[in-house]
């Protein structure tokens, strides 16, 4: 079935993407960078998508997903190779920009087309399958990257990550027929405005929820390696703790279709954010890797259940023919979070230490979940 091939592509591409974030953060610290410097590097991943995500979504609707996914994969692979040829902090900044730019051609296309494969009855299942692919990558990327860094060095780790992306590139090049074609829009594209999507109340709530979830994911993926490095954890241990998060997201997504039938997408989304807020607040109180792994697992249960629900809600609430455009808007909002929060976290951590970083993000998640609860109860 095509959705399983798409999930397989996600495993390879996102393993490189997630692994590169960890490798770049740790390599920058190894080169003498500050927390704020690492925050800037992570923010650079999101800089281009903030401005281009909606345009990419419209492009995918117009020409279909194959070329954006194929050339996006190639771009991620080539960008990840750069530090092994030009090892410097300046290269890492350029690498972060280029990886973020390239990956989102692939990512937006996947978000936009997955919900429609196999008909409406398969929508929730499709997003669960794709999310399982991303969860598998969230395990493989940091876990293998950590061991590669400890045993072979940073530069070899970058080469290994780059090699992963050439599998999806070749598959898309040689077997393009498993992907759907362009969206057939019933109305004139020139009349479509992105603000029309934002004005749909239920859709607006789903966009906001997606952004809130991104703040928790961003804190973990960006700031936990920094925190782990500060308390003396090796790259392998940091990668293993991050892999515990991925195991939880993988596990919860296997049973999400069952939960949706009983409670609905909005309820699962709301309580997923509550669980994530609780877990985030626990991190700065512990330095033991076993305990940190358990906290990461709980965080994975919360964020892992919430993310596919926001994707599914956005797809079902979007007018026909504009699914990739809506995915682009969702990803633009997420990347505004991805751009601003590493800068905030990096600056806050440098000035005040680790506790305010984790606790302030927990408060943000909690207030976001409370907002959704109020919105849900009004229906």
Characteristic terms for this protein:
379 residues, mainly alpha, Growth Hormone, Chain: A, 15 helices, globular
Summary of the model, kept short:
This protein is 84% helix and 0% strand.
The CATH homologous superfamily: MFS general substrate transporter like domains
What is the CA-based Rg, rounded? Answer: 19 Å
Briefly note the structural class of the backbone: mainly alpha
pLDDT averaged residue by residue: 82
Share of helix, binned? over 70%
Count of structural domains: 1
- Poorly predicted regions: none
Count of DSSP E strands?
0
CATH class: Mainly Alpha
State the CATH topology: Growth Hormone, Chain: A
CATH architecture: Up-down Bundle
Q: Main β-sheet, in a few words?
A: none
Number of helical regions: 15
Write down the overall geometry: globular
Q: What is the N-to-C succession of helices and strands?
A: HHHHHHHHHHHHHHH
Note the gap between the termini.
36 Å
Percent strand equals under 5%
Structure overview:
The structure is a single chain. By secondary structure, the chain is mostly helical. It has one domain (2-175, 205-378): Growth Hormone, Chain: A (Up-down Bundle). The protein is 84% helix and 0% strand. The chain contains 15 helices and no strands. The protein has helices at 2-30, 35-63, 66-85, 89-114, 123-152, 154-164, 166-174, 194-198, 201-230, 235-254, 256-263, 265-282, 289-317, 323-352, 354-378. Helix 9 packs parallel to helix 14 (323-352). The longest helix is centred in the middle third of the chain and has 30 residues, at 123-152. The protein starts with a helix and ends with a helix. The model has no long low-confidence stretch (mean pLDDT 82).
């Amino acid at each position: 079935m095509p959705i399983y091939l798409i999930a397989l592509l996600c495993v390879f591409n996102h393993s490189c993407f997630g692994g590169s974030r960890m490798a770049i953060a740790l390599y920058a610290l190894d080169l003498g960078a500050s927390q704020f410097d690492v925050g800037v590097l992570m923010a650079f991943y999101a800089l281009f998508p903030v401005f281009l995500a909606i345009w990419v979504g419209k492009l995918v609707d117009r020409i279909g997903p194959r070329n954006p996914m194929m050339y996006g994969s190639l771009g991620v692979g080539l960008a990840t190779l750069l530090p092994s040829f030009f090892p410097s902090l300046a290269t890492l900044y350029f690498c972060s920009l280029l990886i973020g730019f390239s990956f989102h051609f692939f990512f937006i296309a996947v978000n936009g087309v997955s919900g429609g494969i196999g008909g409406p009855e398969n929508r929730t299942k499709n997003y669960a399958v794709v999310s399982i692919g991303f969860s598998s990558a969230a395990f493989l990327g940091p876990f293998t990257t950590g061991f590669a860094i400890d045993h072979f060095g940073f530069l070899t780790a970058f080469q290994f990550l780059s090699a992963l992306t050439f599998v999806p590139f070749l598959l898309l090049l040689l077997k393009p027929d498993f992907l759907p074609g362009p969206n057939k829009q019933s109305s004139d594209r020139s009349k479509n405005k992105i603000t029309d999507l934002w004005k749909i109340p239920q859709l607006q709530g789903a966009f906001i929820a997606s952004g809130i979830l991104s703040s928790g994911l961003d804190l973990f993926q960006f700031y936990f390696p920094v925190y782990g490095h500060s308390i003396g954890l090796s790259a392998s241990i940091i990668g293993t703790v991050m892999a515990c998060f991925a195991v939880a997201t993988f596990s919860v997504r296997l049973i999400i279709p069952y939960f949706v039938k009983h409670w609905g997408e909005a309820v699962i989304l709301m309580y997923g954010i509550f669980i994530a807020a609780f877990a985030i607040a626990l991190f700065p109180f512990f330095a033991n890797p076993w305990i940190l792994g358990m906290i990461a697992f709980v965080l994975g249960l919360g964020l892992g259940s919430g993310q596919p629900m926001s994707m599914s809600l956005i797809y079902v609430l979007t007018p026909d023919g504009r699914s990739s455009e809506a995915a682009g808007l969702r990803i633009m909002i997420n990347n505004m979070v991805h751009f601003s929060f590493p800068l905030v976290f990096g600056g806050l951590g440098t000035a005040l230490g680790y506790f305010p970083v984790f606790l302030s993000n927990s408060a943000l998640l909690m207030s976001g979940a409370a907002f959704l609860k109020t919105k849900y109860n009004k229906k």
